[in-house]
Write a structure and sequence with these properties.
This protein is an alpha/beta fold and 401 residues long. It has 16 helices and twelve strands. Strand 7, helix 9 and strand 8 form a beta-alpha-beta unit.
């Protein structure tokens, strides 16, 4: 294996995904045309880094990264891959720098891997100002190239679950005020087609999903029932009686056609904290639907959420490739921030057969919630086929798999 990752960093308040970093390091070797060479990536804390600095550089402080190139005289056995050396990264220092630069820790550590690798390849910013500038430019270019490759098979080790929202089956039923089509039956078809969760939003105005629906779904769903809801007293009491597998707190406006954006946790912090406390006592995990925003992620931790669901609407609605890339990077960064903070991460809203694949490739996202696109497709090809087609996108092998 071209990358030997040694994870010596342990902090209960900061989660690191070693597989994600190892995959990015592999991609960097590919970009640098060094796939036949190997290096060791070691994650340490400030104390360990300070020891290395004292031993090898006579400095009594921690730094963010240290590189130890392999010696030219090191013996190579026949058939052995060429050794580049070792890159040590202090995650403690990277964490401080990430917070100061408004980045995820994984983003900052990735930058430090690039910096360390360039040192192993002979670059040295301490030799001259000119070389420092050249090395800085090369780091920026390598990071851009890495971003263009991070949806490859190397980035994803596990696949997210697909949960289907059947609200719009009920929307069609309510348009005629009759009993068909039945969202409960639709949920069963979705599960038989491979969906790993069912999502419904019980609104205060009951515009689509009805009380009867959630009661029957609780009795019949075999995978996982996720009840979307506003933090209204009536709906909270229904959820506590129903005991779904999880709830997702969402903003709710009577005049909106569908949910228009993420919940502002800070504005409703006390009410949300009380609701989460009630659900926790009942053994019901809580997710909060939020925009991909670092402040809201921090607030979700503070109020005691187990999950966040990142709003993907702006990414899906982007009208240019440049705008979509920017929105995607924001979701990627936010997913990493949430993961690092100890939250579990889902995503949804507006995802369709063209936009889902890229989000599904993000390794810190556990589940995608998709409704309108699948139900719309079902009108043309049938619900079973529509779900299977979406599952194929979520599970699609990327080039090289």
């Amino acid at each position: 294996m071209p990358v030997h990752l040694i994870d010596q960093y342990h902090d209960a308040h900061c989660r690191i995904n070693p597989a994600l970093l190892e995959n990015r390091a592999l991609l960097l070797l590919e970009i640098l045309q060094c796939r036949e060479q190997v290096f060791s990536l070691v994650l340490v804390d400030d104390s360990t880094m300070a020891e290395y600095n004292h031993r090898y550089r006579k400095k009594n402080t921690a730094t963010n990264v240290l590189s130890f190139p392999a010696q030219d005289g090191d013996e190579q056995f026949p058939g052995q891959e060429a050794e580049l050396g070792d890159v040590l990264i202090s995650v403690d220092t990277a964490k401080v720098e990430a917070r100061r630069q408004n980045k995820s820790i994984h983003h900052r550590v990735t930058e430090l891997i690039i910096h360390g690798l360039l040192h192993l390849l002979g670059h040295d910013h301490e030799r001259s100002e000119q070389e420092a500038l050249a090395m800085w430019d090369r780091e920026q270019e390598l990071f851009r190239q890495l971003q263009s490759k991070t949806n490859s098979s190397l980035e994803r080790r596990t696949m997210p679950h697909l949960a289907i929202n059947v609200d719009h089956v009920a929307t069609v039923r309510q348009a005629r005020g009759i009993t068909e089509p039945d969202p409960v039956l639709a949920a069963g078809i979705c599960e038989l087609a491979g969906a790993e969760g069912i999502v419904v939003h019980l609104r205060e105005d009951r515009r689509h999903i009805q009380d009867r629906d959630v009661l029957l779904l609780r009795q019949t769903v075999k995978t996982k029932l996720n009840l979307e809801m506003g933090a209204a007293k009536e709906i909270i009491n229904i959820a506590l009686d129903l005991k779904p597998d999880m709830i997702t707190l969402v903003p709710e406006k009577r005049k909106e056609l569908t949910t228009e954006g993420g919940l502002d946790i800070i504005a409703g912090e006390k009410k949300l904290a009380r609701t989460i406390q009630k659900m926790s006592k009942a053994g019901i995990p809580v997710s909060i639907f939020i925009d991909p925003d670092a402040v809201q992620i921090e607030a979700a931790v503070d109020v005691g959420a187990t999950f966040v669901e990142l709003h993907t609407g702006r990414y899906c609605d982007a009208t240019s490739e440049e705008e979509r890339d920017l929105e995607f990077r924001l979701i990627e960064q936010s997913a990493e921030l949430a993961f690092e903070s100890g939250l579990r991460v889902n995503a949804g809203h507006g995802l369709d057969y063209l936009t889902t694949g890229r989000i599904a490739a993000l390794p810190t996202i556990e589940e995608l919630s998709i409704g309108h696109a699948v139900i719309s497709r079902a009108v043309l090809v049938g619900l079973d086929q529509a779900v299977r087609e979406m599952l194929a996108i979520v599970r699609r092998p990327f080039p090289g798999q």
